[in-house]
Amino acid sequence: VQLVESGGGLVQPGASLRLSCAASGFTVNDYPMTWLRQAPGKGYEWVAALYRNGEDTDYADSVKGRFTVFRDNVKNTLYLQMDNLNTEDTAVYFCGACSGNVCRDTRPFRYDYWGQGTQVTVSS
Description:
The chain has no helices and eleven strands. It has strands at 2-6, 9-11, 17-24, 33-38, 44-50, 57-59, 67-72, 77-82, 91-97, 113-114, 118-122.
């Protein structure tokens, strides 16, 4: 059972990236899922949540209107579409799956499944 993030990289301000979180050993549509990030020297920050129903979403104010979270049940994968990136988005991005209806906890141990992270660097 694992989550594997991918899609990170080095981009310029204003660019877009799409992160993927591929699940194996469990079905993403059985869980609410979330994206968190950790900037250098800082704690985890909750970024975006997809409710268990796969339709309802919630976003941190810092990314609202720029990021979109969604899943592909056929590919068993969670995504984070990130548009209009800025330097403050630089961080390692993690995905997680939890119990309940929605995940917003910033403590990794509270998640049933947790990925290894993918680096996003926004720099000119």
